[in-house]
Structure formats: C-alpha cells, structure tokens
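Fold it.
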Amino acid sequence: MSVSATYKVSGMSCGHCEGAVSGEISGIPGVSSVKAVASTGEVTVVSDAALSDEDVRAAVDEAGFELVGVA
C-alpha cells in the first residue's frame, strides 16, 4: 500500500526548482513518485511507507530550499 503526503516548500520559483526538489526527494528510499509545483510551493510525495520529516527536510535542504511544513 502506498502513502501520499503533501509538503510545503518555500523558495521554488520555476521548473528547475521543481526538478531539483523532486530529484532530491526521489532519492529517499521507498519513494515512488514526486510532484513539485512551484506556483503553489507544494510537493506531493508517494512512497511505500510514511517518510520521516527529517528525511524530507534533509532532501529539500540539499536541493537548496526550505521545508516549511506539511500541507
């Protein structure tokens, strides 16, 4: 069974930003899909199991953006 979660990320402004965030979050084990939308700042992640906020925060930080919470 998959789990879907939506996170709020600040600082995304373009397709490149979406790609950077998606790429880093995709690297978390168990993640099957990531959809980042710069215009809303929302990132929807589908994974095999619930992800830890720390893992998601670290991936978003690595991409150069800030995780501001769960939408």
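The mean pLDDT is 97.
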